[in-house]
Amino acid sequence: MNRDLRLLSISLFIWGIGEGLFFYFQPLYLQKLGASPEVIGVILGVGGLVLSLSHIPAGAAADRFGRRPVMWASWFTGLVAAWTMALARSLPVFAVGAVLYNLSAFVIAPLNSYVTAARGRWSVQRALTITSASFNAGAVLGSLAGGQVSQRLGLATIYQVAALIFMISVVVVLFIHPQPVVASDPAEKAANGRRFSPRFWAFMGFVFVVMLVLYLPQPLAPNFLRDVRHVSLGDIGTLGALARGGMVVISLVLGSFGAWEGFLLAQISGGLFALLIWKGNGMWMYSAAYFFAGGYWASKAMAAAEVRSMVSEAAMGLAYGLNETMGGLAVFLASTLAGWMYARSPESAFRWAAWLLPLLLLGNLPFHPRWRRAKVSRKQTS
């Protein structure tokens, strides 16, 4: 691991600690501020929508102006959002901070591009999963601390502590080196006739469906466990830590697989979360569920690795941005649906996600590398 990836991993680890403090308590704090399940779903969904609209311009800006400036902008946006939430004393102000914090995740496309370019001899999936694991390792510690702090000092305190931690992360990321801007190859663009292939666009549609199904049971899972299964705040913090720990383990394991195989296994893991929460009846099952919940986050890195095989380096930022846009739109729709479904039947989101998992797995088949090679072979012989 070179200097820039080390600094980036350290910064992400620190940021993960801060985000882990409050991430799994966000819907519970919104509820405490007076939001109904539908309103919680809308707030989380709007955050996902705003984020999804930012990924394409962020990725394109990274391709044109450089990745580091866009990454810095994201870090500072997240810091401002964190202080907004930390100082908020009403639902509207807090909601603005929450949406702005979601928006700060426009860093994902430039970050993935930066990591891909800086990876050296590592494979794309290994580089992306290692940096993702760094973030989530920090989130494990943050989630454990968040459960204890919220029980002793209240939910509002965890946002104040998180904002202070984010300031350290910002300082660290300011020391990474810039990367050169890669110009588009006119000859390649003319030969291809278009920037992205039909296969790429088909995969984008599939990514949307995958993220929609995998995220549907997640937004109000803490509320379900608290309201229906009567799990304590401390235990919810522990479950959040297990989810991030699962993300670290699952990412590191899947990073040794091919992108297609890793994406498939991540979906199975994410689907097990829904099944175990739906059918679970004790902490050991909820613990297993949250460990497998890391599959959702791992699937994002594996989808990005799959995308890299479909595009040129000059279009990498935009391609990653499109990939994250599909994920963001899925989060918007899944969050809104989850709030609506929870108000009518708290367990329905988990049930539907578990039922739809087999269809997801079948949907992976057209994107298998052998299928792609077979199509290329048929074109060459025709």
Explain how this protein is built.
- By secondary structure, the protein is mainly α.
- It has a single domain, classed as Up-down Bundle (Growth Hormone, Chain: A).
- Helices cover 81% and strands 0% of the residues.
- It has 18 helices and no strands.
- The longest helix has 30 residues.
- The C terminus is likely disordered.
Q: Tell me, briefly, the overall form.
A: globular
Are there runs of 5+ residues with pLDDT below 50, and where? 376-382
Let me know the average pLDDT. 85
Describe the largest sheet: none
CATH topology: Growth Hormone, Chain: A
CATH architecture: Up-down Bundle
Number of domains as seen in the coordinates = 1
- Based on secondary structure, the structural category is mainly alpha
Distance between the termini: 45 Å
Number of helices: 18
CATH class: Mainly Alpha
Helicity range? over 70%
**Which series of helices and strands comes N to C?**
HHHHHHHHHHHHHHHHHH
Determine Rg (CA atoms, Å).
Answer: 20 Å
Tell me the total number of β-strands.
0
Q: Which homologous superfamily in CATH is the superfamily?
A: MFS general substrate transporter like domains
Strand percentage = under 5%
Overview features:
mainly alpha; Growth Hormone, Chain: A; single chain
Short description:
The protein is mainly α and 382 residues long. The chain has 18 helices and no strands.
Q: Strands, helices and their partners?
A:
Layout: H1 3-22, H2 26-32, H3 37-65, H4 67-87, H5 91-103, H6 108-118, H7 124-153, H8 155-173, H9 186-192, H10 198-215, H11 221-227, H12 233-254, H13 259-279, H14 283-292, H15 294-308, H16 316-344, H17 348-363, H18 369-381
Helix pairs in contact: 1-7, 1-8, 3-4, 3-5, 3-6, 3-16, 4-5, 4-6, 4-8, 6-16, 7-8, 7-12, 7-15, 10-13, 10-15, 10-16, 10-17, 12-14, 12-15, 13-14, 13-15, 13-17, 15-16
